[in-house]
Amino acid sequence: MRMLGGFALIISSALGQSPEPLRLVATVPMPSVEGRIDHMSIDVKGQRLFVAALGNNTLEVIDIKNAKQIHTITGLKEPQGIVYTPNTNRIYVANGADGSLRIFDGTSFQLLKSISYGDDADNVRYDAQEDRIWAGYGGGALGVINQDGAKLADIKLDAHPESFQLEAKGPRIFVNLPASRKIAVADRKAGKVIDSWSTGGPQANYPMALDEANHRLFVVCRNPARMVVLNTSNGKVIATLPAVGDCDDVFYDSARKRIYATGGEGAISIFQQQDPDHYRADARIATAKGARTGYFSSDLGRLFVAARRDGSRPAEIRIYQTQ
Predict the structure, then answer these.
(1) For a designed S-S bond to 47, which of 64, 195, 232, 236 qualifies (C-beta 3.0 to 4.6 A apart)?
(2) Of the candidates 211, 210, 140, 214, which has an alpha carbon nearest to the alpha carbon of residue 182?
């Protein structure tokens, strides 16, 4: 297989064609994992990937360097969002079924604290500006805690928040609100929503990625399956392109000016950013039915895609290297 891959790459180069933008380099089976798999986070220094096995009520720890499953945290309640903070070596896991945000030690994997958000704790983000953790939850709110788990504030929303992105050099948070068919813009300094934007027609806007340097927001909708590019200076739609169906994660690769969208339809849609105003569909790479979530590490140049169990094939993490 490696020889065939190398041969294909040589032929492509000889013909003046570019190789595929992603190359599958490893597959990590998770034979004990059943059901839906949700979001992920990474420990770059420790070469570990953390996987929310929602349907299995576990958090799976993957050794990236050796491509193997090394630990399981049990007793969770539909884990959804995960974030790892290297400065404290802690893992924050949001649970949908009981609304808890649980903090685990990154070495012993012992539970340090559980914070109650009442219902449907979902996506989680680390705020490097303030050294805080944000979580979306319930019928409509973003909550923020310090790294020890003390609640600090909430920002009220008019619907349940799905993916959201924080500016690194500004105070804004962009939040997908599919139930109210819009994107909310919140100011985390003011602690409130300051604007809302439309996707221009497509609905069911779940995943989101941000190109802060070029003031562009990438939102993938499911109905119909489209990637919508917005200008974060004014909320205007810049471009709309067909995308993979049932998308639940999208990532911006600033080094290669690419966008990767993972969809349960069974593929990765890859888009090329020609400049901030122009985009093209660059490739579509087949994965597996239901492989709707992923994680892109800009440090490693790798995209991790989660595939749930399918018949005799166990659940697995597929690792793709950028090219």
Answers:
(1) 64
(2) 140
Handedness of CA 140, 204, 263, 128 (dihedral sign): negative
Verify cis geometry, omega within 30 degrees of 0, for the bond prior to 224: yes
Per residue in 115-141, is it b (16+ CB within 10 Å) or e — as a string?
bebeebbbbbbbbeeeebbbbbbbebb
Residues present in the chain in total: 323
Q: Which H or E run contains 296?
A: strand 293-297
What's the burial of 51, exposed, middle or buried (CB within 10 Å: 0-12/13-18/19+)? buried
Which two structure tokens, joined as six digits, stand for 75? 């007793």
Q: Full-prediction pTM beyond 0.90?
A: yes
- Cβ neighbours of residue 208 under 8 Å, at least 6 residues apart? 162, 163, 164, 165, 174, 176, 183, 217, 218, 219, 220, 250
Residue 234: which region, alpha, beta or left (left: phi > 0; alpha: psi -120 to 50)? alpha
**Cβ neighbours around 16 below 10 Å, total:** 6
- The whole-number pLDDT of residue 14 equals 42
Residue 99 · residue 121 · CB < 8 Å: yes
Q: Vertex 106, ends 105 and 111: CA angle to 5°?
A: 30
d(CA 132, CA 126): 6
What tens digit of pLDDT does each residue of 37-47 get? Answer: 999 999 999 99
